[in-house]
Amino acid sequence: MRPRYLLASLVLLSACSSVPGHFVRSEEDPVSHSLVYRFDPAVVDRAAMEADALSYCQHNGFDGAYAIPGLKSSPTGQARAAYLCVYHPVSATSSDQR
Q1: Which three-class secondary structure string do you get for 30-98?
Q2: Would the pLDDT of 54 be above 60?
Q3: Which of 28, 33, 37, 55 is the most buried (most CB within 10 A)?
């Protein structure tokens, strides 16, 4: 069992370094509309990762992606970042033109 875990970890690490932005969307929850990314903090393109999260959220009808702070690193040593899809509050405008 342990060799499979190590192999999966190596595949994930190599995938992160070969994709544009150097991050991988590792978890996606359609119920809570949240995403978790794994990445190497030394080489990640955070702007591309945030743009990917925003694109996912907008594709699903939301206004924005809110970064969830405080995730621990993965067992492979990679950092993790999570985003939650949110709606922006709408301010009501009064139409008291009489």
Answers
A1: CCCCEEEEEECCCCCCHHHHHHHHHHHHHHCCCCEEEEECCCCCCCCCCEEEEEEEECCCCCCCCCCCC
A2: yes
A3: 37
